[in-house]
Amino acid sequence: MDADAIAEGRRRWQARYDAAKKRDADFTTLSGDPVEPAYGPRPGDTYEGFERIGWPGEYPYTRGLYPTGYRGRTWTIRQFAGFGNAEQTNERYKMILAAGGGGLSVAFDMPTLMGRDSDDPRALGEVGHCGVAIDSAADMEVLFKDIPLGDVTTSMTISGPAVPVFCMYLVAAERQGVDPGVLNGTLQTDIFKEYIAQKEWLFEPEPHLRLIGDLMEHCARDIPAYKPLSVSGYHIREAGATAAQELAYTLADGFGYVELGLSRGLDVDVFAPGLSFFFDAHVDFFEEIAKFRAARRIWARWMREEYGARTDKAQWLRFHTQTAGVSLTAQQPYNNVVRTAVEALAAVLGGTNSLHTNALDETLALPSEQAAEIALRTQQVLMEETGVANVADPLGGSWFVEQLTDRIEADAEKIFEQIKERGRRARPDGQHPIGPITSGILRGIEDGWFTGEIAESAFQYQRSLEKGDKRVVGVNVAHGSVTGDLEILRVSHEVEREQVKVLAARKGERDEARVRTTLDAMLTAARDRSNMIAPMLDAVRAEATLGEICGVLRDEWGVYTEPAGF
Ligand SMILES: CC(C)(COP(=O)(O)OP(=O)(O)OC[C@H]1O[C@@H](n2cnc3c(N)ncnc32)[C@H](O)[C@@H]1OP(=O)(O)O)[C@@H](O)C(=O)NCCC(=O)NCCSC(=O)CCC(=O)O
């Protein structure tokens, strides 16, 4: 790009920056020197390919979504939390909000994630262990007791039974007297990544995608600020994928949901802002920053060129980041604070919109209150002390970071081509029921291609670790330590007994006939292929449990079985 065009871009960005609202904060260095809100080539310099980098807040958004960067608003500190019963987790949420957490993020226990009630024999020993146990709308009410749902953005990490859990959240809002239409938050919902990596699926892909289509339709129409999908690379990466695989599989999944919305006749400019993303911040600092920058650029281009999105918001890739759980070590666990800080810094320099920092003890158990506080304070140290929120995309123009960004983007494009090719093989007639990328994803799930690719990357990494080419402090280098054992959080089995008792009491109090009628109406909607949200909401209002709702659908749709791969 020639110097005049660069200068013109700078003027355009500066005008937008000047017009935008900024935080009331000090934007100078620690020594008191002023810094610009964003930097670019020096006046008079040319820069080949600058249109791919650009200015913050401009297409293709490589440098962030806003002309102000974090001067307009800092990222959301959103700590993922949940354990025991709804009452205990409600206490932890109040602690997080009082300590400066900017939003909530619900972690559910394994039975809930699998759509089972706490009294299901398969739930034995798991209730309240890796998150909070939620059986019905009454639990959801307790979970958010004294937390006004209309004022706090809430993320719920659940995919298999996302839709019934979402209905419980809506009913909890109704019972607080909050109009569900004003709710703002995020539901994970991403079922592709369950088949690809995390493996907490319930049904076959086809009916499940239909249910997700119902949710997208409902939110686009009735809850405009709510984001019904958080397309997740985190679990793909944690399963062993490389940075480029994480990026490409996740964005491809995102394209799949865009195709789903379009196949339902929805307007891309209306529903696309409801798609958000969730990435891992691993420990390779620069590679991660490049990944985040490439993610925004690829998404914007595909949304504009492939899917016809016209508005900024429909082209924006907004994402939450969690630091890498797999990078934490049980050995010398205090070192995990350092790893997490470096990973969090990469997420911030990559322009994350929302961030969870892991606690130092998370490789051993759910975080203790003390470890959870250090994790949250880590974000505050970055935000308040280091000056990183003063300048948008401070690494833009770095030869290394720009070239890494280009390389990861090129690698991702190659993977998209492989996915498309699978779609062409799956549908040689060119008839794609949802869309070409979706056909490729479904074929890749069916024939175990994604899991095989991820397993191969995990294997390569493990080999290099065992050969000592890759090093991890306290694991294969620097073993000596004076650190003793940590006090870890243990969830008592009493929680399970208590939860089962409470569930039995609630079942005893409800109107059984109403439960049956509403569940039957939901089943009829499933058979008629009509939108299932309204009848599911009615069942939830009648206190039908998660296990009952998912049970009806399991009986109707069948459960998914993974193809065996060797
Ligand atoms: C979009 C995100 C990513 C973030 O939403 P947030 O509300 O926090 O932030 P946001 O949308 O970026 O910002 C809030 C509002 O401020 C505006 N805003 C932001 N920055 C601005 C700026 N500089 N200038 C002007 N406006 C700005 C935004 O446009 C938005 O307004 P408008 O709304 O008006 O536009 C959302 O989807 C989210 O919260 N995701 C979290 C997902 C999560 O927690 N997942 C946990 C998974 S945990 C998991 O899976 C566990 C893994 C494991 O351990 O097993």
UniProtKB/TrEMBL annotation:
Heterodimer of an alpha and a beta chain. This is Methylmalonyl-CoA mutase. Keywords: Isomerase. The keyword Isomerase applies. The lineage of its organism: Bacteria, Bacillati, Actinomycetota, Actinomycetes, Kitasatosporales. Residues 29-558 form the Methylmalonyl-CoA mutase alpha/beta chain catalytic domain.
